[in-house]
Amino acid sequence: MNVINETEKVYEMEGNQGKLRKKLVHHKGEFYMVSENTLIEETLVFRADPTGDVSSYCEVGGGRGLTLEQVIAEFDDMLYTPWSEDDDTEDL
């Protein structure tokens, strides 16, 4: 995994100051934008193109209570596992 770039941007949300921290990551042939919102204490992973533009805001990893550094350090474990109909699942 390679971290390509990172940005920090201060923004205001509902009268509170927070930071939006981002890193563009190249991992196993795919590009991802890892984005941390310090105000709500959440870091999410989105698919991106090589220039860092997010291709879909449907998150593919991360979660609440995680920092950007934690997600980067355990990147493979932080990516969501796709659901498959072949998985052993219990009928509801």
Descriptive account of the structure:
The structure is a single chain. The chain has 92 residues and is mainly beta. 11% of the residues lie in helices and 47% in strands. It has 2 helices and 5 strands. It has helices at 68-73, 75-78; strands at 2-13, 16-27, 30-37, 42-48, 61-64. The chain has a 5-stranded antiparallel beta sheet with strand order 1-2-3-4-5. The longest helix has 6 residues, at 68-73.
Q: Report, as a whole number of angstroms, the end-to-end distance.
A: 38 Å
Query: For the residues shown, what is the average pLDDT?
Result: 83
| Rg estimate, integer Å | 15 Å
Order of strands side by side in the largest beta sheet? 1-2-3-4-5
Give a quick rundown of the structure:
This protein is mainly beta and 92 residues long.
Strand and helix map with partners:
Layout: E1 2-13, E2 16-27, E3 30-37, E4 42-48, E5 61-64, H1 68-73, H2 75-78
Antiparallel strand pairs: 1-2, 2-3, 3-4, 4-5
